[in-house]
Amino acid sequence: MITILNHPLITHKLAIMRNKETGTKDFRQNLDEIAGLMAYEVCRDLPVKPITVETPMGNCDTFALKNDIVLIPILRAGLGLVNGINDLIPTAKVGFVGLYRDEETLKPHEYFAKFPDNLKDAVNLVLDPMLATGGSANAAIDLIKERGARNIKLVCLVGAPEGVEAVERRHPDVDVYLAALDSHLNEVGYIVPGLGDAGDRIYGTK
Ligand code: PRP
Ligand code: URA
């Protein structure tokens, strides 16, 4: 299932990020803010369990989140989504997948992986601002499924139709959330109109 979060605040902030004149500081700040707004929607259907709490006036039958939540940023750029979501879910655990995309082949290469040990029973949010060919997202999802993850949501800012199709084909059980679905990939695998190279813009490396 794919959900595109057409919300005026998200679109407004994403427009600032897309603007090539936007510098690192504002790029990061808007990414942080969008991450929080997206988290609210992504978590809308999280399973809950009944609990009873004692208020100053008596007992209240209510609900609490049922599962652990694990945030899994795809390094580097996915790290930019962690703080905004963690602000809303401070108890979330964080795992990491280090992948870089070979500029010639566009294939992902793994250089790091470290996860908490409860992926099987957790709701796992895989985070990456960009879903281009879908190779990196698919590789990250492959990796966490090998470690038992079953409940997986992929949270990206900007997606290309090619990437969405690739993830839907390989992992039809994974829900995909985007802030925007863009037009296409260019000849070197960048999303058009997109926002350029997310990692470089977050970390000022170009
Ligand atoms: C970017 C982006 C995604 C990937 C998307 O990362 O953050 O991880 O490319 O492309 P794909 O869908 O075609 O795999 P990159 O490999 O540039 O690494 P970085 O985050 O370290 O800059
Ligand atoms: N990675 C990025 O950072 N941007 C794109 O447009 C595609 C892949």
What does this structure look like?
The mean pLDDT is 97. The chain is globular. The strands form 3 sheets. Strands 1, 4, 5, 6, 7, 8, 9, 10 and 11 form a 9-stranded mixed sheet that branches. A two-stranded antiparallel sheet has the order 2-3. Strands 12-13 form a two-stranded antiparallel sheet. It is built from 6 helices and 13 strands. By secondary structure, the chain is of the alpha/beta class. The chain starts with a strand and ends with a helix. Helix 1 (8-18) packs antiparallel against helix 2 (24-42) and helix 2 (24-42) crosses helix 3 (82-88). The longest helix has 19 residues, at 24-42. Strand 6 (96-101) and strand 7 (108-114) form a beta hairpin.
What attributes does this structure have?
single chain, 206 residues, alpha/beta, 9-stranded mixed sheet, two-stranded antiparallel sheet, 13 strands, globular, binds 1-O-pyrophosphono-5-O-phosphono-alpha-D-ribofuranose, binds uracil
Question: In whole angstroms, how far apart are the ends?
Answer: 35 Å
Mean pLDDT: 97
Structural class: alpha/beta
Low-confidence region ranges: none
Strand content: 25-35%
Taken in chain order, the helices and strands follow as EHHEEEHEEEEEHEHEEEH
Compounds present? 1-O-pyrophosphono-5-O-phosphono-alpha-D-ribofuranose, uracil
Radius of gyration: 17 Å
The largest pleated sheet is described as:
9 strands, mixed
Total helical elements: 6
Q: Helix content range of the residues, please?
A: 25-40%
Q: Please state the overall shape, judged from the principal axes of the Cα atoms.
A: globular
Q: Tell me the total number of β-strands.
A: 13
